[in-house]
Amino acid sequence: MNMKKKILQRSRKEKSVEIILLLCALVSVISVLFISFFIFQKGLPLFRTVTIAEFLLGTNWSPSSQTNPQFGILPFIAGSVYITLSSLLLAVPIGIMTAVFMAEIASKKAAEVMRSVVQLLAGIPSVIYGFFGVIVISKFIRETFGGSGYSMLSGAIILAIMVLPTIINITEVTLTSLPKKIKEGSLSLGATRWQTILKVQLPAAKSGIIAGIVLGMGRALGETMAVLMVAGNAPIMPKGPLSMVRTLTMNIVTDMGYASGDHMTALFSTSIVLFLFILILNISVNIIKGNPEEIQ
Amino acid sequence: MSIINLPAIDSSIDRLVEIERQKSNTNYEKAKRRNLAANVLLWGSAALTLGILLYILGFILYRGFRSDNIIESDFIDSSGISVPLDWHDGDSVLIVNDKTRLKEINLRDLESLLNGKPDNWGNINSQDLDVLPYMLSSAKGEFGKNTTYRESPSEIVSSVASQPGALGLIPASFLSLTENKDINIIPVKMLSVGVNPSVLEIENNIKLRYIDRKILRKILRGELTNWQEAAGRDMPVRLVLPPPGSFEWDALIEIAGVSSEELAQSAVGTSSFDEFYSKINSTPGAFGMIRNDRAEENNIKLLSYRYRQTGANLQWWFLFEEPKRAGRVGGISTIVLNTIYMVLLTVLFSTPIGIGAAVYLTEYAKQGTLVKMLRLGTETLAGIPSIIFGLFGFIVFVGAMHMGIGLLSGTLTLTLMILPTIIRTSEEAIKGVPRSFSAGSLALGAGKWQTIYKVVLPAAAPGILTGVILAIGRAVGETAALLFTMGFDYRAVKNLSTSARVLSTHLYQLVKEGISFDRAFATATILIFIVLFVNLVSTRLIKRKY
Amino acid sequence: MRSKLSIKELDFYYGDFKALHKVSMEIEPNKVTALIGPSGCGKSTLLKTLNRMNDLVAGSVVDGTVLYDGDDIYGKYDIIQLRKKIGMVFQSPNPFAMSIYDNIAYGPRIHGIKNKKVLDRIVEKSLRQAAIWEEIKNRLKGPALGLSGGQQQRLCIARVLAVEPDVILMDEPTSALDPVSTSRIEDLIDELKKEYTIIIVTHNMQQAGRISDSTAFFLNGYLEEMGATEKIFFNPDSKKTEDYISGKFG
């Protein structure tokens, strides 16, 4: 009898432990749901006064005007897109080649060193990247091309450095996880290493590399501090690599301190756009990763 | 029957094949050259990546430990220990208590200190100390009301030696008194570059903005005879020499580095100060080294002087002194303390939840929609930009839950941010524990949770710890999520709802407000050290595990 | 007859581990030579030294000489040229993730042949030689990874043939295949030896007996015995060879 009671007690305890653990596991899901819910709840009311088209395609951002407030965020969408794409333009070739070096060329020791390098680059806080950008990169741009130095180009360079680790990491992991026999097959036909890398290994690692690039894109798009410090933050349509830009994230962070009313709502609407961008990127990473081409 | 069954021989194509094959036997050199070029490219990329890291780290650490700034000022960077001041007969020596961090001072700052404005060292050397001037009683009444007068130089020395923040002027003839380890003799910069107003006029959009030591020397030696050569207007340089034997004369000879015969041929000599000042004012293109405090009374225009100032930057006191005036003065002790509180609280909140979630995912959950959903949730959470976490914290913790901007709101926001890192690494760690461990325990009749708690989790501890440490690294560096949740108060937090500035937000403020690059570098250096430490520890832990 | 490959006093190390001890052997042209022996005896290692695929293994050291048509392949011999001349078929089929046509054309293309007509011809000829043309001629643009295991392995053989090698090394080419595919490949090997010199590593004693002209038996990194296949199988000199052939170990 006593034994039975004990077992019953224990199973009740096991059950409650399981429920507590489940609750822990649910925290992230619930957070995601809450985050989405609150951002939409705070941001959607803007569209009672402004149409979605006016919001997304308007180029005039003067939210605190007393007479005729304007909430066009096209300049920020354009700023985010331009700055992200140009940072990838810089980071992708260097990132892929560095990853190829680590996976194919480097000795074990050199690859180990490079892995620490990449890990460190990933670990440097964005505010330090921003500071470095202010001191070094903006200065370089100012002295080379003139102007204030706070520009899209400065932002893109800093972002390129920041997304480099993401691209290198994923590309390297994908390359090293490719079956060795593919490489051997090519080399045994008399191909050079480079031919093997270019024609066989990189194509086979395509989906992983693309996933890495998309992840990097997400990181660049969501980055706030570094671009805030170097990109100039002017709420106008970007005109070229040397013009000051404001991205979606910068728009949120710049006005948040003092905004109120519709202005505040518009910042949350801005974050909806950012959130949707990121969500789309995340989903595409999942699709790409879940569908690795027949590498075997 | 042969299985090799070639179609009707088309001799023209086979001949072509043969020719191409022959060619291909000789042209593999091209492939090899390409391979070599590619190798260069690959090595180059890796070197670039390495170079970027080393440059960033090296640059910040260098400037963190060594202040290295280009300064434009009215004063020439040449200072003397014995200085001819009107407050004493003959030369004077400035002494300060050695708790005051001061290497040199210029005459204008010294005068304002003696006049009691400011009455705090902050503006001069960023140190939060009261200014306590001591003077000989013969100068009674000439200075500010916080100046104390003493009868003899030795009394001044002992007063200065006993109080941090104290400074005093004693006659240079009493220099031997200063052999006291509690006081330091501080050199005073007195000289400026005085020019005839014509030198500073704009001509063809060109205006002389400053000169540096190199140009100064050239002028003194007569190697530079037209202001054009110093980026000024087209006008001859006329060096006006101070009366021989004066303080200015001696300083000039020292800077020129040549004997008085070798000074500029065209130099205009003077025999009295009145003549000296009037020559400068009346001669077009005139130039003279004058005492800064005499410029105004003699109506002489000053030219900026540019020099490089180097010295130690980050030192221990920076970590242990309290910040004052938004970090302009003092160190960052309270900010470090706030950072530690933030890390501890964040770890306290996130670790149990993270490990619990990882245990559930690895040990309890059955594969299916629920697990897929949980994983998707974690992955999505990991991808959300920190600014959105900040917004969420702002609406929910600060607003809806009435916690206000403060430590608790900030750490809860961070907790959500770093949760995915902890869950993922803990999951890996738990999966890495051999099944035989838990099987052994279960076979002994231990319950599932008991087994996990007593066997699996201890075995997975190093891996979990790695995750926690990586998460700490992320939390310490985070800025955007804290801007609207944790606030910027640089005083030590008193309770959970006190606004708190941490290292990352402090760095941002220093840069944004342009407070001080030296201080920004010092703060960034500390952040870099934390990042290096986190990386070192986590890689060590990972290595030990395998 | 002059040897195609002559191996003299070959030592091979993986780091500290010595995998081959003073191996000397002669490979005759247009013959099938089988390398047999228990796992870890060094037969695959020897095969890989013949087209220097062992160069890929970090810490490997070769001592001794391998002469191919009289030239030392570890001397000044160009490695690309060598691998072109001495092709290799691997244990499990390893077609690239591209079309059948591109797989076969890969070798000629990397060696600089661009002419479409020439490539077409080479692809067709190689696939016919590998006895797979009839089965796949209608889906040359289809993915190579969509073929069955046996077809993939013949495709890999065709891929080697497309660069017109002189010697073909086969590392247990049928170990991952079903019996029907295996027998097709064995027929193919028999046909190919008219034009090529073939060295095959196999675990399958019957296979060695069926297809090889001479056989070399390896044990613990030593070449225990080599000779005509019939002699090795029915009248070996070494007791160990006899034990292995009769299935007492291995």
Strand order of the largest sheet of chain A: 1-2
Order of helices and strands of chain C: EEEHEEHEHHHHEHEHEEHH
* Strand-pairing-aware structural class of chain C: alpha/beta
Secondary structure class of chain A reads mainly alpha
Low-pLDDT segments, ≥5 res of chain A:
292-296
What is the CATH superfamily classification of chain A?
A: MetI-like
Q: Give the amount of beta strand of chain A, in percent.
A: under 5%
N→C terminal distance of chain C? 34 Å
CATH superfamily of chain C: P-loop containing nucleotide triphosphate hydrolases
Unreliable stretches of chain C, pLDDT < 50, 5 or more residues?
Answer: none
> Biggest sheet of chain C, open or closed, and with what strands and sense?
6 strands, mixed
Overall pLDDT score of chain A: 92
State the CATH topology of chain C. Answer: Rossmann fold
From the 3D coordinates, which CATH architecture of chain C would you assign? 3-Layer(aba) Sandwich
Write a structural description:
The complex is a heterotrimer of chains A (296), B (546) and C (250). Chain A is built from 12 helices and 2 strands, in the order ααββαααααααααα. Chain A is mostly helical. Chain A has one domain (70-289): MetI-like fold (Orthogonal Bundle). In chain A, helix 3 runs parallel beside helix 6, helix 6 runs antiparallel to helix 9 and helix 9 (206-222) runs antiparallel to helix 12. The model of chain A is unreliable at 292-296 (pLDDT under 50). Chain B is of the alpha/beta class. Chain B folds into 3 domains: 79-189, 3-Layer(aba) Sandwich (D-Maltodextrin-Binding Protein, domain 2), CATH 3.40.190.10; 192-312, Periplasmic binding protein-like II (D-Maltodextrin-Binding Protein, domain 2, 3-Layer(aba) Sandwich), CATH 3.40.190; 318-545, MetI-like fold (Orthogonal Bundle). Chain B has helices at residues 11-26, 28-65, 107-114, 122-125, 153-162, 213-221, 247-256, 273-282, 292-295, 316-320, 333-364, 369-383, 386-400, 407-431, 435-443, 448-477, 503-512, 517-545, and strands at residues 66-73, 79-80, 83-84, 91-97, 105-106, 132-136, 148-150, 166-171, 183-186, 188-189, 191-195, 210-212, 238-239, 286-291, 301-312. In chain B, strands 1, 11, 12, 13, 14 and 15 form a 6-stranded mixed beta sheet that branches. In chain B, strands 3, 4, 6, 7, 8 and 9 form a 6-stranded mixed beta sheet that branches. Chain B has a 3-stranded mixed beta sheet with strand order 2-10-5. In chain B, helix 11 (333-364) runs antiparallel to helix 16 (448-477). Chain C has 250 residues and is α/β, with parallel strands linked by helices. Chain C has one domain: Rossmann fold (3-Layer(aba) Sandwich), CATH 3.40.50. Helix content of chain C is 36%, strand content 26%. Chain C has helices at residues 43-50, 79-85, 100-110, 116-129, 133-136, 149-161, 179-192, 205-211, 229-234, 239-245, and strands at 5-14, 17-27, 32-36, 60-68, 71-72, 86-89, 167-171, 197-201, 214-219, 222-228. Chain C starts with a strand and ends in a 5-residue tail after the last helix. At the A-B interface, helix 1, helix 3, helix 4, helix 5 and helix 6 of A face helix 2, helix 11, helix 12, helix 13 and helix 14 of B.
